[in-house]
Amino acid sequence: MRAIVQRVTSASVEVEGKVVSAIGPGLLVLVGLHESDVDSDADYICRKVLNMRLFPNEETGKTWDHSVIQKNYEILLVSQFTLYGILKGNKPDFHVAMPPDKAKPFYAAVVEKFQKAYKPDSVKDGIFGAMMKVNLVNDGPVTMQLDSSQPSK
C-alpha cells in the first residue's frame, strides 16, 4: 500500500462539477492499493499517517513536532490506483494495482479504519472510481511518500 501524504491548508474533491468533500488544515492522502495488500498494510498506513509529526508546535517553536491528531485537523483520503503505475515504453501499465472489484471494498475498509482510529467527522474521502478533480493548497510544501512494505513483483 502506498500513501502520498500532503500537508495542506485546505483541500477538496470535485466530481462532475460538484464538491463532494472538503477539509481545512490537515492532510490530503492519496492512497494506492497494490494487488497483494492485506489488512496489516492498511493498519500500518493508518497508524503512520495519524502519527506523522508534520506540523509545527507554536509553543516550543519545533517545526516537526505535532501530528494531525494533536492539531485536531482533518484528513482527506483519495483513492488513486495510478500510484502503482509503471511505464512500459511510453504507456502506463497498472497491472500491479489492486483490481477495482477487490479495491473498492478494501478502500472502504481503509476509510473506516481511519474514521475509527481518529474522529469519523474529521476523515473525509472522494468517490471511489470516479473521475475526480482534487484541489489543494500544499502547506510548506510538505509531501511525504509512505509505503507499507516492498511488494513482490
Largest sheet geometry: 6 strands, mixed
Rg of Cα set = 15 Å
In the predicted model, the low-confidence regions spanning at least 5 consecutive residues are none
* Estimated structural class: alpha/beta
Element pattern in H and E: EEEHHEEEHEE
Distance between the termini: 13 Å
**How much strand?**
35-45%
- 3D shape: globular
How many helices does DSSP assign?
3
What assembly state would you assign to the polypeptide chains in this entry? single chain
Mean of all residue-level pLDDT scores: 96
Topology, number of strands: 8
Estimated helix fraction: 10-25%
Can you give me a brief rundown of this structure?
The chain is an alpha/beta fold. The chain is built from 3 helices and 8 strands. Helix 1 (39-51) packs across helix 3 (100-117).
Task: Explain this structure.
The protein has helices at 39-51, 68-71, 100-117, and strands at 2-15, 18-23, 26-32, 74-79, 86-88, 91-93, 123-125, 132-147. The protein is built from 3 helices and 8 strands; from the N terminus they run βββααβββαββ. It is 23% helix and 38% strand. The mean pLDDT is 96. Helix 1 packs across helix 3 (100-117). It is α/β, with parallel strands linked by helices and 153 residues long. The relative contact order is 0.30. The longest helix has 18 residues, at 100-117. Strands 1, 2, 3, 4, 7 and 8 form a 6-stranded mixed β-sheet that branches. Strands 5-6 form a two-stranded antiparallel sheet.
